[in-house]
Design brief:
Blueprint (H helix, E strand, L loop, with lengths): L1 E6 L4 E3 L4 E16 L6 E6 L10 E4 L13 E3 L6 E6 L11 E4 L5 H9 L26 H14 L3 E14 L7 E5 L3 E2 L2 H12 L4 E3 L2 H11 L4 E2 L1 E2 L9 E4 L5 E3 L15 E3 L3 E2 L1 H6 L1 H4 L8 H6 L2 E7 L3 H16 L4 E7 L1 E3 L16 H8 L1 H10 L6 E3 L2 H23 L16 H22 L3 H30 L3 H22 L4 H10 L22 H23 L9 E5 L3 H9 L1 H8 L3 E5 L8 E6 L2 E6 L6 H27 L1 H6 L2 H27 L4
Parallel strand pairs: 5-7, 12-20, 19-20, 21-22, 23-24
Antiparallel strand pairs: 1-2, 1-10, 3-4, 3-9, 5-8, 6-7, 11-13, 14-18, 15-16, 15-17, 23-26, 25-26
Helix pairs in contact: 3-4, 3-8, 9-10, 10-11, 11-13, 12-13, 12-14, 12-16, 13-14, 14-15, 16-18, 19-21
Length: 709
Amino acid sequence: SYIVNWCPRCETALSDLEVEYVEEEGKLYYVRYPIADGNGEVGIATTRPETMLGDTGVAVNPEDERYKHLIGKKAILPIVGRELPILGDPAVDMEFGTGVLKVTPAHDPADFEIGKRHNLPELNVMNPNGTMNENAGKFKGMDRYECREAILKELKEEGYLVKVEDYTHAVGTCERCHTPIEPIVSEQWFVRMKPLAQKAIEAAREKRVRFIPEMWEKEFYNWMENIKDWCISRQIWWGHRIPVWNCQSCGEEIVEVETPKACPKCGSEDLIQDPDVLDTWFSSALWPFSTLGWPEETRLLRTFYPTSVLVTGWDILFFWVSRMIMTGLKFMGEVPFRYVYLHPLVADEMGRKMSKSRGNVIDPLVSMERYGTDAFRFALTSSLIPSRYMPLLESRMEGGRTFANKIWNASRFVIMNLSDFKPDDSKRLSLELCDRWILSRYNGLVAAVNGALEGFKFELAAQLIYDFMWHEFCDWYVELSKIRLYHSDKSQERYTAQFVLWRVLEGMMRLMHPIMPFITEEIWQMLPHEGESIVIAPYPEPDERWINHEAESEMNLIMSVIRDIRSIRSEMNIPPSKELKAIIRVPDDQERRRLESHKGYISFLCRSPEIEISPEANRPPASATAVVGDIEIFVPLADLIDLDRERTRLQRELEKTLKELEKVERNLKNKSFLTRAPAHVIERQRERKSELESVIAKLKKNISFLETG
């Protein structure tokens, strides 16, 4: 017999891991227990008065000066009248309640241990369904909560109830039906866990199994080092029967894999199998090898045990992962997997666990229908931060859909321009700076993504892919390729642009495929390719020969200049249709040569046919200015916009922004707002203040550009 967690609704034992603790507002009842010799009384605090009927002792801490003198005496159990020995036990918390503990060994795990130490009887007062049994006397047949009210009524009437306090405490509930569990003493089957756990701890310390993220390793050790024996028997209809038979003639217990024909002790054939079934996690713990033909030494078992990686949610680290490690070491002599990747659980936008009662469950099928399956997958992958919960944001899914659209549109452009293209290794390429740059960046990306995937940093891999595909390939290289696709009469230049577009896009489809399988397969099939499907195409590997740091540095300089000229066009409200002039002062000779060599890139992407690059250029009147290191950029505005109207517009925008900043600052100085508003609202106001200050600085700068002097 041992004390177990019992669900009165499911009428089955539960392991400690199957109990969920819920914080509840309850009551703490103070009850007077008279001393048997008539000299005084002790006050006892309890949250479960109905279990008083099972009290078989009273305990105090032997170090507690208030009650030392009572050890060895007896107290009277109110209502029942039973005498209870008063014991000294160091497990009693002197700070809880009155410092005196009623000991109910059959209905509390801590009391059970105290009872064992002091040889107290175990008096079970409840039936399996949560009603009171014959040991409850006149309360027999009552539901446990009905019994609680009846006992409280009687305690009050007889003067034993001293006071009642509000009390917040954790209540254990059944993970299946959420009914409050009842600890009871019962005969169950257990697995002794300490020897198994020790081998698993050693395997983890020797790095034969690793946990990703590493923060879970500490949790693993903490649980394994404090592990308790595992109750594996369940009183439910469905499951693997416990392989134990009881001989009805001599009482022998027979443990066999196959059904025994007769008792090995007395020869009787009157055998009855134990009616209990195994905890479902017991058979799950055997899964890595039992599914591969074990105990036979099969080819599948030799091939796939141990496997490389287990990917699962952190919430079953103890239910399943730890137990697979322990059983694997016990029966196979080796861990079942080398790495355990524990991902966060999907939460709502507030970071709360999804539940039907909260009404915050996101149906993935609905989200996939709305945003697309690839977009949904990308949103999940890019959100995989090392944590317990991962908020699934609508904005992430919307961003995933926008990204998929960007990929599709850019790919359509490339495919449309490959109608006359066929990859030919014998053709000589005429690589320009932008070709060398994108090929270098692509191969660097492949190396970085492979490293991220090997390190289980899936969110980093997704972010790297996103940044390259959107901000480098689509925004820069595709645009620059148009110069040779549309404006060059040289076939070699056109072929080179086509080749690089194809090479990078085809490689990107393979690189992105694990995250976004559907769109990448569709696009890949439309590109020149080898093989039937992208699924079986080789995953990209970096080619170090294409890494070109000089090309990257040179291209970064040109892109910075282009960005600043484009920024001036946007901030100064210059219409996209108007061509502008750019004057660039470049003191450094090497930088000046680089810009001169690729003036065509600047002219094409900035819609600026007139580019003047000089070491000593002066700023013209009424011109916007930007600075890139030692380089200064001037864009004359007089012929592009109505200076007075633009100055008026910017002034109005400045006044409006200043008023908004004033309002935000008032909020952040308001003590009432700072004490009452949620933390995320306050943080958003602080962020908004920084944003507004940045906007104001830009507006003032742009107004100064419009001065004609």
